[in-house]
Structures are given as structure tokens and as C-alpha cells.
Amino acid sequence: MLAKVITRKAVSRGFGEAVRYIARDNADQLDEPRPEMGTLHLDCPLDTPEDRQTAIDIIDATAAAARNKTARGPVYHVTLAWQEAEHPERPQIDAACAHVMQTLGFAGHEALWALHRDTDHDHVHLIVNRVHADGHTAKVPRYDWLLLDKAMREIELAQGWRHSPGPYVVVQDQDKPVIAKMSRAERAKRGRLEDGPRLSNAAKAAEHRNAGAPSFQGWLSGEPAQALRVAVQQPGATWQSLHRAAAGYGVSITPKGSGLVATTTLDDGRVLAAKASQMGRWASKSALENALGPYVPPRGPMPEPTVAYAAALDGQRASLRGEPQHVGIDPERQRRRAERAQARTLLAKRFKAEQQASRMRRPALRKALTERHRAERQMLTAELRQMRATAIAEHKRDGMLPQVAISYQAWMAAGRREALQKQQAAERRALTAKIPRSEVWRTWLDKQAEQGDEAAKAALRGIRYREQRKSKKYPQQDGIEGEDLDPLRKLTVAALDAQIDPKRQLVIYRGQDGQEKFTDTGPRIVMHDKAADSLEAALRIASQKYGGQVDIT
Length: 553
Fold this sequence. Notes:
- This protein is of the alpha+beta class.
- The chain has four domains: 2-164, BirA Bifunctional Protein, domain 2 (2-Layer Sandwich); 201-320, no CATH class; 331-439, no CATH class; 464-552, no CATH class.
- The chain is 46% helix and 15% strand.
- The chain contains 16 helices and 16 strands.
- The chain has helices at residues 16-23, 49-64, 90-104, 144-159, 184-189, 201-209, 216-220, 223-233, 239-247, 285-292, 309-320, 331-397, 402-434, 441-450, 454-470, 532-546, and strands spanning 2-6, 36-40, 75-81, 111-116, 123-129, 168-173, 176-181, 252-256, 259-265, 271-275, 479-482, 497-501, 506-510, 516-520, 524-527, 550-552.
- A hairpin with a 2-residue loop joins strand 8 (252-256) and strand 9.
- The longest helix has 67 residues, at 331-397.
- The protein is extended and about 120 Å long.
């Protein structure tokens, strides 16, 4: 097991951003599988975005009650990664997270975790509130990364996982496993040093953002590095031959400072860079100049890239999201699949744009409302002052004592002010409801689906399908699954009546007896009747929907 502390450039005072990231509730994470989640010392479900928002509010409230504010912020974020083919269960994850918190001095603190299984290595994101419920803020140990590495060996021994490389290693002492600290030289001598490129913290963070797909540094150190090294080792190799080999991977080698950098340009215009020496010591500036002479920039036309990082990244992201890699499918299905993917992307962008516009519009509306309310209060004050003077003069003419007149006018003024305060409070609540600070993705999708947006309907079906897969009843359901490409609609089969449920985005198929035979939920047809004719009808509809590629459960 390996542990990695996730740090942010800006100090975060709230837990919303971190929790939404690990829960994959952000708009740009809609296509990623939903993680399994759990809590420690936090009695709150995490099944829906609303539940997770409640958990965020609870932790934020605890953090806000801290007796001492610290510059580091209350959020402590660490990942625990298992080796390939190791798949921890919930009790093991709870025990591992509790042990890590005990090691770091966070025992008894509120925490939650999310398990991501869609990469080569299962890994858990653990987010801990450094502020205890009693208001005490725990300090982060100075060498927390070292304590975490030792904790990983302890968890490996306790749960039976394979040992990962690190400063702490497991050795045998009188036939008993003992955890000992070793230097890099000692580990290299014993063959326990990690092989392969040593990625920078920025590259490791990029791999997290890419949902486990390799960073540019990691990708560059693989096949491109091997091809470029072969080009350099060829007899008569020159800088131009190196540039041509790099161009085949969409990479440019250019000087920067006292060294060389390898760069590539993504489809959106962003330029990614890595030190050339990341490919190996042979690729340092001094080594290349010893082999090829002083640096020479590329000249003339370069070959078009046959493999590029952008394409490799998109392909691996799709694979990690679980999107099927179809071969030999007719172009029409490929076109529709591309259209659906584009629709999802545009939907997420539209959501972000609307939220941004709402956030920009909200301050102006708030300011206008505040100014109007201030003017109303000033008008009421002036009106009450005039009424008070007039009333006192009238009461004096009637022979009433001034104290009685003043008391009566104070009672009248209090009633008017209370009525105005209630009216203005209602207007503020109405504005908040009309333009909330941030709208939940699920709620926004519901509104768009009610207006007939097919992309929103498809996204809702996907969310409901993922929720359905998590339910305990799911493995017990008989059904047919496939790739849902088209909008949900009635499909004609003789002797069946199809009825669309627009609220739940379902198509219910009933027989002539009025009984439900099966339900089309989008990516899955759930069987209610196991009769042969019902199964045949469901298979015919599945063939129309999924193109003949289905899984029968």
C-alpha cells in the first residue's frame, strides 16, 4: 500500500470542494463511476448529492467552531492505494482509515472516505476534519508522509496485503516480521527500491485529475522515451533525427534555462511540459549534447504525429470510465454515440455557464434589493417622525398627557416596523430561492428534463441507473443490459402496451392482462415476468435499442 498527502496551493476553509471531488459530484465528473463511500465519527448517509451536502454542512459547522484558527486550514486529504489485483472491502477500508487517523493524531475526528475502483489500483480518498467536535484543532505531524509509510506496512501486515516499496520495509527477525526504516541506498542494495520514473508532485496530482490516466510525465517516460532513445543511439544520429522521432509523438524538444524540456499541445490549446531528463539520464541536455553536439532547433517540415498524448489521454479516460471499446460497429451507431457524448459535454458546460451567470447576477440583484430596502426603511422613518409630531400636537389639543401620546405612537411605530421587516425578510428569501448560491446538479437536471431536454433526460437515466446498481436488490433482478444510445421512447412489439413515465424516465410495458411484463430504464430492461413470450419481446426491444450487444443477467 502507498499513501499520498494531497495538498492544495490555496488554503481551503471549507470541505465542499474536496468532498465533491472525491464523490465525483462535479459537473465535469458526470461520466465517471460513482464511488463507494463511508464515514468515521460522522453519523450521516452519503447516498445522494443532497446527503453529501448535508455531511459537508456538518463538517463545516464543526470546523467553524474551532477555538483556534490555523493558517493551514481544517482539511486534511490523503489517499491510500492498494497494489494491482488487490480489492479491499468496506470493513478493511474502515480499519485502514481508522489506523491512519490514529497514527496521525486524528483519532475521534470526523472523516469520510471514497473508494475509486476505476483505475489500475484501487485507492481510497480519506478526508479528515482537523477540528475535533470539542473545538480542539489537531496539528499535522511534521513528517506525516513518513508516519503514513510506516502505517501502510502495519496495515499490510494486519490485513495480508503485499508490501509496497517505501522508506519502511518489512524484514524477518527470528521468523517474525518486523518493520524497519531503510535509506534509499540500503533499499537499492536489497533490491527494494521502486523502479521506473519518479514523477513530480504536479504529475501525480495530474494523474488524480485525469481519473487515474497517466500524466504527461508518466506517458512521456514510456513508449515515447524508448523510441527517442533508439533514435539517439542510431549511427549518425543528429538533432534533426531526434526532432523527427519526437514529432511522431506530437512532442517538441526545446531548451529552457540550463536544460531541455519536452512539450506537447492539447486540443484546447494548453501546452504541457516536462523535463527531457524525465525520460532518463540519457535525455539530459549534457548527455544529448555529448551524443549529438550543441543543440540545434528543428528545421523544415516535421512528420505528423501518429501517436499523441491528447489522444492517448482521451482513450484511457474512456476506458477508465468503463465505456466499452467497440470494434466493427456500424458507422451509424458510432455517430449516435459521438452525438450523445457531445451532448453530455455540452450539458455540463451549460450547467457551469448558468451557475456562473447566476453567481455574477446574484450580487447585483442583492445590491438592488438592499438599496430598495434601505430606502423603504428611510421613508418609513421619515413618515413615522412626521406622524409622531402630528399625533402629539393633536393629543395636546385634546388634553392628553405627552407621555401617553408618545407611548401610543411608539406602539404604532413598532407595529409598522415589524410589518416592514417581515415583508423584507420574505423578499430576501424569495430572491435566494430564485437565484440560489449554487444549484445541485441533480436538481438542475430535473428542471431541464421537465422542459424536454433529451440530454438531461439521458443524464438522469444514467444517475438513476448507477443508484440502482448500488441497491441490494440489483443482483437479484432479472434483466437485459446494453449501451443506451437513443432517447427513451416506446418501441413497438405486438400484444404489448407501452406507457412512458416522464417523471421517472421509464417505459413500462404491460401485457393484454394489464400486468407489467418489463420496464425499460434506459441502459437496462428490468424483467418482471419470466414467461417465454415476455422474454422474447424484451429481447426484440433490446435488439432495437442496443444493436444486438447485450448482457443477460
